[in-house]
Amino acid sequence: MATREQMLREMNLAPLWRLRRQDRVDTPAAGTGQPMPVAAPPRVHVMKPAAPAVDAEARRTRIAELAWDALAADIDACNACGLCRTRNRSVPGVGDQRAECMFIGEAPGAEEDARGEPFVGQAGRLLDNMLAAIGMHRQRNVYIANVLKCRPPGNRTPEPAEAESCRPYLERQIALVGPRLLIALGRSAASLLLGTDASIASLRGRVHRFDGRPLIVTYHPAYLLRTLPDKAKAWEDLVFAKRTLAALRAETAS
Question: Quick one: how many helices (H) and strands (E) in the chain?
Answer without folding.
Answer: 10, 8
